Amino acid sequence: MQAILEKYVSVSTDKVKNWVCAGPVDLYPDDGGKCFKYKGKQIAIFSFSRRNKWYACQNLCPHKFEMVLSRGMTGDAMGEPKVACPLHKANFSLETGKHLNGDLPSIATYPVEVRDGTVYIGMMD
Amino acid sequence: MKRKVVIIGNGMVGYKFCEKFIAAEHSSNFELVVYGEEPRPAYDRIHLSEFFSGSTEEDLSLAGREWYENNGITLHSNALVSGIDRKNKKISIYKGGEESYDYLVIATGSHPFVPPIPGVNKQGVFVYRTIEDLENIMSYGKRILAKGKREAAVLGGGLLGLEAAKALQDMGLKTHVIELAPRLMARQLDDEGGQLLLSSMESMGLQVHLSKMTSEIAGNGAITEIKFNDGTSLDVDMLLISAGIKPRDELAKDSGITVGPRGGILVDDTMKTSDDAVFAIGEVALYNEMIYGLAAPGYSMAEVAISQILGGDKRMVAEVDMSTKLKLMGVEVASFGDHFCEGVPHQSITYLNRYRGIYKRINVTEDGKKLLGGMLVGDSSEYNLLLQYVLNEMPLPEDPESLILPAGKDGGDAAGSLDILPDSAIICSCESVTKGEIINSVAEDDCSSVKEVCACTKAGTGCGGCKPLVTDLVADTLAKCGKEVSNHLCDHFAYERHELYDIVKVRGIKSFNEALDAIGKGDGCETCKPALASIFASIYNETANRQDTIQDTNDRFLANIQRNGSYSVVPRVPGGEITPDKLIVLGKVAKKYDLYTKITGGQRIDLFGARMEDLPLIWEDLIEAGFESGHAYGKALRTVKSCVGSTWCRYGMNESVSFAIMLEERYRGIRSPHKLKGGVSGCIRECAEARCKDFGVIATEDGWNLYIGGNGGANPKHAILFAEGLDDETCVRYIDRYLMFYIRTAKPLMRTAPWLEKLEGGVEYLREVIVDDKLGICDELDEQMEYMVGTYECEWKQAVEDPAIRSRFSHYVNSDEGDETMEFVSLRDQKMPAPWA
Ligand code: SRM
Ligand SMILES: Cc1cc2nc3c(=O)[nH]c(=O)nc-3n(C[C@H](O)[C@H](O)[C@H](O)COP(=O)(O)OP(=O)(O)OC[C@H]3O[C@@H](n4cnc5c(N)ncnc54)[C@H](O)[C@@H]3O)c2cc1C
Ligand code: SF4
Ligand code: FES
């Protein structure tokens, strides 16, 4: 388990080495997510259309280690954009990755940019 | 330099010490270091038994490691402390190392007491105190069950022993309870109470053996038999010992700190031991010649020790409250105050109802003015109130018996009696929260719900026994402050579900975003999105495909998500009737996609372990063969169960299968606040169990009898007879109206049973609405139902036919492969998800 968890480390915009193309925006449902595969990693990418924003995080839920977060429901908790895990509703901040309704470890988050209708995520590898 | 407090033991009380310490004033001048023997941070031992019913380690955890880190507390788990060097103010750790201290707090709790019976070391003999104990019990239990053995026993018929017995019984073991005393729960109950509890326990299948002294545990390596002093014996394959507790005072004893003659570290009312720098709290402390085997006294001790260390002078009360309330196999048991009053002048008032299994006893002073204590078996609803009378020494009413008599016409209601409690009354004894503090949190700190009040004051976060009283108090205070009791859906919509239903309908709101913009705020959440999805479905009969991202996860993927992220597929089999050809198709499809198959409790077949990307392919095959979605994933009609009825059955009064199929096809696809289930039986033998369904129909000589508001599941309830002797058409009409009325007015995730219970006026009122059209809405209800029935579409058919919807089921956006991390293992010739680590 530790090995899978260590694969996912948050990337801040200034650390990005590689802006990876994750396809055209219309692959992603409005106010919903899809999973993107990159170098053996599963990254959940969310189109937060209500705010015209995009977010990305690990697809792995640290609660039971299932690859499911991209299927979760988006929303906000006191203004903080979040995703709720479809299995047991653990809520994670899409900005910071923090577990908002308990104290599971934080999830890794990644920067997202949209240029000319194409989604890019910022990776270090 | 900061001074250092070292705590030995990270159990319930050790944790509470940390929590209260960091919250106390001036505590920042101190550093906290904790040593705990167990491998994980402190957890909730009180709710340990819930581990058997599926609670996880995380559920029980009191705080994660981050909590300790974030609060600057150093926590060493897996670290047994092996010695105290008082001269040099140091402790030594068994695995190596030392730690110096300015103050030492011993919170090492206790061990289960294991009587020295020959053979106690045999395999299959367990104690019941830690998560590891439970894990061992569960795996041993499964092992013996797999070998076809099922006899288990618990030694000790006290509170904990009975709780353990229930856990064994729930595992499917035939359970015996062996008790030395002549009655159960001898420390809490008198003869009458013990006797009543005994009959309740026996009626639930427990075998109780009283006045039994165990002489030997026999067996070759593993236990197979228990022998008693009276020459009798019992064959069992497993034994849990729950014979009391033994304080873990060895560290203190070895270092010359005074311990009591029968164990326990001696403390005074400051929690100091015979060494001024060493405190003892919790189950290891001997105070007033007593060991207190409950969490609440330990929490008070923690507060006292903290105050003393920080320079205050809080002291332990002289009389420690040991009142308890619990539920054993569904039987409520409570004792409070001085429940026996041995050697204390008093008068007892008792109420006994053997038929209902209720016994209540209160002890009042000889002048009848004050309540001293008492006990309750079978019904403890008055516990909180009675406890308040004792703790606050409140004057009793003229006729104290009214406090325990069944609530009649003028039975006292809890809310009314709240007024007589002083502000200093302790409402939550686990956390010592007073009535005044709760009122303040509402009146001054702006808490507006029970949840907020509990978070703010910590009331109700211990054993939870005070929750009903807190709820009443919060509602009462809100009302008095002129604030409204918030039943709002969530932070995003300041309305209740039925209000939202009306607004959406009247304003013709069509989408979630439109609703947010018009009457909500923010971006929504996992509470309001599915609730509105359900409302849109109930008004426009839209399927889950139109606004898929606001659906609960199961609706969004039109299948139930499983523990490893795979899905289950349940095609509709109306009334449970299926042709051989269709059965063959199910078998073929299951084989083709490697699915686990099981007959469900709803008379149909579930195919489990489908990969998300296979779902559209599977459904293409099923639809081709004439199947439709069974909506097993939705808050929608599930099944209408039927018995074979008059077509074949020699007792049948009517064709129950035909009627069930008709009903199931009528209501299929209709979304509602919670799932809906129906049943139709051909006669009063009731083989279809129609009376535990949301609507149940039973054939009689005179026509159909219609029952409503039944529920299996978590809170079983028999359906109530709504009307008798109906013809087909009237029966359907009544069900139509009842369902539509429920769909309009119920709260989210509220089944029909609790809805009917809460409905003012109950079933009589419902009859006036549905049969006599008292509200004049019957036409509207009929119309809405006709619309729903007329516009039904199979949402799986929609999904497989529309490429845009189909793409929802790919796991990756950039690959057609499925999730490669999903694991299955084999199970009895089929497959199952790999267990969670
Ligand atoms: C498959 C089945 C068990 C079985 O193998 O037999 C089952 C499986 C589940 N039940 Fe059930 N229930 C099944 C019959 C029942 C029954 C029996 C019945 O319907 O006659 C009951 C009690 C009757 C009742 O509902 O009143 C039942 C009471 C529940 C409850 C408790 C509801 C309640 O009101 O307390 C839940 C939890 C909930 O809905 O919140 C639940 C929830 C679930 C869920 C959906 C849990 C979940 O969210 O994942 C399970 C999904 C399994 C899956 O992935 O397919 N299931 N469940 C049965 C499917 C019947 C079907 O063909 O549709
Ligand atoms: C199944 C069950 C149900 C219960 N139900 C209730 C209930 O309904 N209501 C109620 O009030 N109480 C209940 N109790 C009792 C309650 O759990 C205890 O009163 C409470 O846990 C006592 O807290 P404590 O911190 O003193 O001891 P514990 O919680 O036992 O903690 C002591 C800790 O110290 C550790 N330790 C011991 N020696 C050392 C050492 N030398 N070095 C390092 N660490 C050490 C132990 O491993 C343990 O983790 C129940 C108990 C059980 C087992
Ligand atoms: S309910 Fe009546 S008709 Fe149906 S199977 Fe049982 S006995 Fe026969
Ligand atoms: S797996 Fe995500 S909350 Fe349980």
Structure description:
- The complex is a heterodimer of chains A (125) and B (837).
- Chain A has one helix spanning 2-7; strands at 18-24, 32-38, 41-48, 53-58, 60-61, 66-67, 73-77, 80-84, 91-93, 109-110, 112-115, 118-123.
- In chain A, strand 5 (60-61) and strand 6 form a beta hairpin.
- Chain A has one domain: Rieske Iron-sulfur Protein (3-layer Sandwich).
- In chain A, 5% of the residues lie in helices and 46% in strands.
- In chain A, the strands form four sheets. Chain A has a four-stranded antiparallel beta sheet with strand order 2-3-4-10, with no helix packed on it. In chain A, strands 1-12-11 form a three-stranded antiparallel beta sheet, with no helix packed on it.
- Chain B has 837 residues and is of the alpha/beta class.
- In chain B, 31% of the residues lie in helices and 20% in strands.
- In chain B, the strands form eleven sheets. A five-stranded parallel beta sheet of chain B has the order 3-2-1-7-19. A five-stranded parallel beta sheet of chain B has the order 9-16-10-11-12. Chain B has a five-stranded antiparallel beta sheet with strand order 21-22-25-24-23, with helices on both faces.
- In chain B, strand 26 (426-428) and strand 27 form a beta hairpin.
- The complex binds siroheme (SRM), flavin-adenine dinucleotide, iron/sulfur cluster and FE2/S2 (inorganic) cluster (FES).
